[in-house]
Amino acid sequence: MRAVRIVRPGGPEVLEWVEVPDPTVGPGEVLVKVTASAVNRADLLQRQGNYTPPPGSSQYPGLECSGVITATNSPVCALLAGGGYAEMVAVPEAHTLPIPRNLSVEEAATLPEVACTVWSNLVQIAGLKKGETLLVHGGGSGIGTFAIQFGAALGAHVVTTARRAKHQALKELGAHQTIDYTEQDFAAEVKADVILDIMGGAYLDRNIEALARHGRIVVVGLQGGRKGELNLAGLMAKRGTISGALLRSRPHDEKAAIVRGVRDEVWPLIESGAIKPVIDRRLPMSQAAEAHRIVEASEHLGKVVLLAE
């Protein structure tokens, strides 16, 4: 088969579409012939040498895909620990999801990673409730566009930060308020019950300032750095909490439970049309380097999709 291989840590130019050995299918796994995969920020970190795949997983990038189980010809999408940028990938069957009835196999490639990340953090960890205010940082990203729709579907008041050029599109997805982080201080604009944060250290202090009483911050990305100074007095005064969770490295059974929760609680919202995939553009998998350049520059809205050739 062919796959995108990282030749060495570095920029997008280190990605090569080459012939590689077929994957080996282990116990409880199925072999998926890949139709499409989607680019996530974690893929960029892996390419740079800053995010090593978990032991025993594929070394090729790609944390989600869609395609067909070769043994049964069943269309699925799947949450992966790696290997989505390839013509075939072995994946635990418990980490696969059916294609939503109203979507194509290609569109479904954009869902598993963001749906599992957003649901596990906003529902399992933060306990977002109807009527609460949700602040989503990076509203134009894959995580952001999904979280805006999910929060709105749950009945939350959704606020998001993004560049002004993306504001109208994000309002159409369900954001009630948009904040241009290049011109406005979000901490002065909103008091949020839940903050979904992709920035990490750079936003730590202002996230606490932006919290409402009993507010919850869930950190899912570190685009603004791994370290920040924590204002414990401010957090204590708000009676707030901060949590962080990686999805990729979680044990098999935890991931399987998240996938089941997404199927039960998120898939009906997708099939009803309350949540729709947001695809910025589609590129052949051999152009993975160009896809990484687009995501790195934040030129996209939603997901950049790679199509198997």
From TrEMBL:
InterPro entries: ADH-like_N (IPR013154), ER (IPR020843), GroES-like_sf (IPR011032), NAD(P)-bd_dom_sf (IPR036291), Quinone_OxRdtase_PIG3 (IPR014189). Residues 10-306 form the Enoyl reductase (ER) domain. The keyword Oxidoreductase applies. Pfam families: ADH_N (PF08240), ADH_zinc_N_2 (PF13602). This is NAD(P)H quinone oxidoreductase. The keyword Oxidoreductase applies. Keywords: NADP, Oxidoreductase.
